[in-house]
Specification:
Number of domains: 2
CATH topology of the largest domain: Aspartate Aminotransferase, domain 2
Structural class: alpha/beta
Number of helices: 15
Strand order of the largest sheet: 4-10-9-8-7-5-6
Radius of gyration: 21 Å
Helix content: 25-40%
Strand content: 5-15%
Number of strands: 14
Order of helices and strands: HEEEHHEHEHHEHEHEHEEHHHEEHHEEH
Shape: globular
């Protein structure tokens, strides 16, 4: 293993204290503060392949991968080369480039229903605009989301949200006016009856249902059989749009995303993370007649100074081309299955009750003996035991997401030997916390 169980964090401690003087909580995104797992946040100095190195010189096998974008691992040569070449020609233009058209064409060729694509800079921008577009297309105001699903931090979506909101135990967020969420309806993930109930009461007012087709922000919760097909049928029956938020699961669930994997075509899809190769880039896409409502063709306004940034586009193109090679996704799926099956075996041997899940190169593990199909199920997990698991793995040189309610990721840079070392650490850690 990279570590022996005795590591030091003196420089990270000093860096965290310095950061807290000028950055709220010392971090630029809440889960990074380790609040739910305790201990000292790791300040990263560098990354290469499947590993990161912190400012104290400790090395870790990384299964966070910047929360999903780095499907090729850290500092992937093809991405570094693409970004370097792009930067040499200019870092931003605020004008169209051929490369952004090339990326849009590639996404349209891969993602079901993505006849036209608009690039933005973040997942929050993508989902926020997708909902504005759905309202413009239908002339309706209400939206349906699912408890435990996270779609960014736009006001109307911070209702029973997952990710950091769930990690910190926040029901919603102060600062969000009641009016901002008045048209947001909440259903239970994997529960079509709860969706039918909302449409029975508000059917003619609902513009769209937005869902993570593979929920990844309450931990990893796959859709049960028939759930996504049921959403497609309900929305069509009531004249509402179906939005797949694939910011997290797109190009992780499979080579063409979750819509292709499950054979369901949404009206609008949002993408992010992997499509930017580690740089700030996201997109929303959909059928031509819907997307042509977007300005300057149509009346629905959306704009962004850095939308289609040439560095991010270069990184995205390099990443998507690399993962499009034959055998890449088969290998990712196999390695992820070996990892999560090994975690489950280690838990069983130690007498620790867990529930595991995998979709493509996404994986998750809940410390509970109850099957997890929704946020209510996920919330029964033993978060204290998860915190001990996280710290035990960190001490052995394995960096996992610092929250029970986040998802893990593999990259093409993770080798069989890396997984062997991770499973060795997992067996030791499970015995320690059992």
């Amino acid at each position: 293993m990279e570590q022996t169980g005795t590591i030091t964090h003196e420089r990270s401690i000093a860096a965290f204290e310095r950061a807290r003087q000028v950055i709220p909580g010392g971090v630029n995104s809440p889960v990074r503060a380790f609040r739910s797992v305790g201990g000292q946040p790791v300040f990263v100095a560098s990354g290469a392949g499947a590993r990161i190195r912190d400012v104290d010189g400790n090395e870790y096998l990384d299964y966070v991968l910047s929360w999903g974008p780095l499907i090729l691992g850290h500092a992937a040569p093809e991405v570094v080369e693409a970004v370097t070449c792009a930067a040499a020609n200019g870092t931003s233009f605020g004008a169209p480039t051929e490369a952004e058209t090339e990326l849009a064409e590639l996404l349209a060729s891969l993602v079901p229903g993505a006849e036209m694509v608009r690039l933005v800079s973040s997942g929050t921008e993508a989902t926020m605009t997708a909902l504005r577009l759905a309202r413009a297309a239908t002339g309706r105001d209400r939206i349906v989301k699912f408890s435990g699903c996270y779609h960014g931090h736009a006001d109307m979506l911070l209702v029973q949200a997952g990710s950091g909101v769930a990690t910190l135990g926040l029901p919603d967020s102060p600062g969000v006016p009641a009016g901002a969420t008045a048209n947001t309806l909440v259903a239970n993930f994997n529960d079509l009856a709860s969706v039918e109930s909302l449409f029975a009461g508000y059917g003619g007012e609902i513009a769209a249902v937005i869902v993570e087709p593979v929920a990844g922000n309450m931990g990893l919760v796959p859709p049960v059989e028939g759930f996504l097909a049921g959403l497609r049928e309900i929305t069509r029956r009531h004249g509402a749009l179906l939005i797949f938020d694939e910011v997290l699961c797109g190009f992780r669930a499979g080579p063409r995303g979750a819509a292709a994997l499950y054979g369901i075509e949404p009206d609008i899809v949002t993408l992010g993370k992997v499509i930017g190769g580690g740089l700030p880039l996201a997109a929303y896409a959909g059928r031509r007649e819907i997307m042509e409502l977007v300005a300057p063709v149509g009346p629905m306004y959306q704009a962004g100074t850095l939308s289609g940034n040439p560095l991010a586009v270069a990184a995205g193109l390099a990443t998507l081309r690399a993962i499009g090679r034959p055998g890449v996704f088969e290998s990712l799926h196999h390695n992820t299955a070996r990892l999560i099956d090994g975690f489950a075996s280690a838990a069983t041997e130690a007498g620790v009750p867990v529930q595991t899940a995998q979709v493509g190169s996404l994986f998750g593990m809940f410390f509970t003996d109850r099957p997890v199909h929704s946020w209510d199920d996920a919330a029964t997990s033993d978060t204290a035991r998860f915190a001990r698991w996280f710290q035990a793995m960190l001490a052995r040189g394995v960096y996992l997401a610092p929250s029970q309610f986040e998802t893990g990721f593999l990259s093409t840079a993770h080798t069989d030997a890396d997984i062997d070392r991770t499973l060795e650490a997992a067996r030791e850690a499970m015995r320690e916390i059992g």
